[in-house]
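Work Package 3 (structural annotation) set out to generate three-dimensional models for the target panel prioritized at the project kickoff. During this period the team completed the workflow that converts sequence records into discrete structure tokens, so that structures can be stored uniformly alongside our sequence database. As a representative example, we reproduce one entry of 189 residues exactly as it appears in the project archive.
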Amino acid sequence: MGTIILANMPVASSCDDHTLDFDALVFAHGRFVLNIAYSVLRNPQDAEDIAQETFFRAFRAGDLGKIEHMRGWLGRIAWRLALNHSRNRSEDRRKIRSEDLLRTLPAAETAVDEMLVRKERAILLERVLLSLPRDLRETFVLLTVEGMTSQNAAEILGIADSSVRDRLSRARKIMKEKLTALAEVNNEP
């Protein structure tokens, strides 16, 4: 993913205790915000746009020095913006096109059949993940795909840490059941 470019963005001065330096805010939390946006959108350019919008909105909110949990607050902003952006994208962008498969050429030592099997598994896993209820899917992505702690995910989702662990457990159970059922169907003669 590249670096976050904040062209023509105003920079707050750090002349008093209630105003954070905008550059320091981006430096401290930029990668985190970008990772959250990318975890939802799976597109580097869209994730960068959402990260920029997150910091722009945070700056516009003003008085950043009074925010107690800056990381969680920024994470929630990025998460919601990314979800809204994702909902607004057309279904065509979510579908895997044949051109996308052609661009994913196998390495010299990888057999084409093996590459196709891995691609099919990835598509199947994504479909099962997308079939989860939204709250379980969001929790699963933050913890499993992004590798966040349950405490960080709880801050972003605005729920208790115990609820995050419960959602992850339920998501894993449902995914296991669906994948097992699919495997049984595929193994029938």
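Confidence is low (pLDDT under 50) at residues 1-19.
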